[in-house]
Amino acid sequence: MKRTLIALTLILPGALLGACESSQDPYRVVGQLASDRLELSAEFAEPIVEIATTEGSAVTAGQVLVQLDTARAATRLAEAEAALAQQQARVDELVRGP
Question: Where is 49: in which H helix or E strand?
Protein backbone atom coordinates (compact mmCIF):
# COMPACT_ATOMS: atom_id res chain seq x y z
CA MET A 1 0.00 0.00 0.00
CA LYS A 2 2.79 2.42 0.89
CA ARG A 3 4.60 1.63 -2.37
CA THR A 4 1.49 2.35 -4.36
CA LEU A 5 0.99 5.63 -2.54
CA ILE A 6 4.61 6.64 -3.09
CA ALA A 7 4.40 5.67 -6.77
CA LEU A 8 1.23 7.73 -7.21
CA THR A 9 2.79 10.77 -5.54
CA LEU A 10 5.73 10.54 -7.93
CA ILE A 11 3.82 9.70 -11.12
CA LEU A 12 0.77 11.94 -10.69
CA PRO A 13 2.62 15.32 -10.81
CA GLY A 14 4.55 14.18 -13.89
CA ALA A 15 1.36 13.10 -15.62
CA LEU A 16 -0.32 16.41 -14.80
CA LEU A 17 2.62 18.39 -16.13
CA GLY A 18 2.68 16.29 -19.29
CA ALA A 19 -1.01 16.97 -19.85
CA CYS A 20 -0.41 20.72 -19.63
CA GLU A 21 1.99 20.72 -22.58
CA SER A 22 0.85 22.92 -25.45
CA SER A 23 0.41 21.06 -28.74
CA GLN A 24 0.75 24.31 -30.74
CA ASP A 25 4.48 24.81 -30.05
CA PRO A 26 6.30 21.64 -28.98
CA TYR A 27 9.64 23.51 -28.73
CA ARG A 28 8.39 26.19 -26.38
CA VAL A 29 10.57 26.65 -23.31
CA VAL A 30 9.51 28.65 -20.32
CA GLY A 31 12.27 30.30 -18.33
CA GLN A 32 14.32 33.38 -17.83
CA LEU A 33 17.08 34.46 -20.14
CA ALA A 34 20.06 35.75 -18.20
CA SER A 35 22.80 37.69 -19.91
CA ASP A 36 26.09 39.12 -18.79
CA ARG A 37 26.91 42.76 -19.27
CA LEU A 38 30.48 43.33 -20.35
CA GLU A 39 32.28 46.57 -19.76
CA LEU A 40 35.12 47.52 -22.05
CA SER A 41 37.86 49.83 -20.92
CA ALA A 42 40.21 51.53 -23.31
CA GLU A 43 43.96 51.34 -22.85
CA PHE A 44 44.23 55.07 -23.39
CA ALA A 45 41.93 57.89 -22.33
CA GLU A 46 41.15 59.12 -25.84
CA PRO A 47 37.89 60.64 -27.06
CA ILE A 48 35.53 58.31 -28.92
CA VAL A 49 34.92 59.47 -32.49
CA GLU A 50 32.68 56.61 -33.70
CA ILE A 51 30.58 53.85 -32.15
CA ALA A 52 30.46 51.09 -34.77
CA THR A 53 27.81 48.86 -33.18
CA THR A 54 24.58 49.23 -31.28
CA GLU A 55 23.73 47.94 -27.83
CA GLY A 56 22.34 44.43 -27.90
CA SER A 57 23.65 43.52 -31.37
CA ALA A 58 25.71 40.39 -31.89
CA VAL A 59 29.42 40.93 -32.42
CA THR A 60 32.26 38.67 -33.52
CA ALA A 61 35.80 38.38 -32.23
CA GLY A 62 37.99 41.10 -33.71
CA GLN A 63 35.10 43.32 -34.78
CA VAL A 64 35.63 47.04 -34.21
CA LEU A 65 33.22 48.30 -31.55
CA VAL A 66 34.37 51.89 -31.07
CA GLN A 67 36.90 54.12 -32.82
CA LEU A 68 39.09 56.32 -30.65
CA ASP A 69 40.67 59.61 -31.70
CA THR A 70 44.26 58.81 -32.65
CA ALA A 71 45.65 62.38 -32.71
CA ARG A 72 47.17 62.33 -29.22
CA ALA A 73 48.46 58.77 -29.62
CA ALA A 74 50.08 59.68 -32.95
CA THR A 75 51.71 62.71 -31.33
CA ARG A 76 53.09 60.56 -28.49
CA LEU A 77 54.35 58.01 -31.02
CA ALA A 78 56.12 60.70 -33.06
CA GLU A 79 57.64 62.07 -29.85
CA ALA A 80 58.92 58.61 -28.84
CA GLU A 81 60.35 58.01 -32.33
CA ALA A 82 62.16 61.36 -32.20
CA ALA A 83 63.60 60.52 -28.77
CA LEU A 84 64.74 57.13 -30.11
CA ALA A 85 66.41 58.77 -33.12
CA GLN A 86 68.13 61.26 -30.81
CA GLN A 87 69.44 58.46 -28.58
CA GLN A 88 70.57 56.45 -31.62
CA ALA A 89 72.48 59.49 -32.90
CA ARG A 90 74.13 59.81 -29.48
CA VAL A 91 75.14 56.11 -29.54
CA ASP A 92 76.53 56.50 -33.07
CA GLU A 93 78.55 59.51 -31.92
CA LEU A 94 79.95 57.57 -28.96
CA VAL A 95 80.92 54.64 -31.20
CA ARG A 96 82.53 56.69 -34.03
CA GLY A 97 83.71 59.64 -32.02
CA PRO A 98 82.79 63.31 -32.39
Answer: strand 48-51
Q: Are strands 66-68 and 48-51 parallel, antiparallel or unpaired?
A: antiparallel
Distance CA 74, CA 68 (A): 12
The answer to whether the beta carbons of residues 15 and 8 sit under 8 Å apart is no
Task: Check if the beta carbon of residue 8 is closer than 8 Å to that of residue 1.
Answer: no
What DSSP character marks residue 62? T
Whole-angstrom CA distances from 73 to 15, 47, 66, 79, 81 are: 67, 11, 16, 10, 12
**Each residue's pLDDT tens digit, 12-40:** 566 655 655 555 666 676 776 666 676 76
Length of the chain: 98
Helix residue ranges, H only, the chain: 2-19, 71-96
Determine contact, residues 68/42, Cβ cutoff 8 Å.
yes
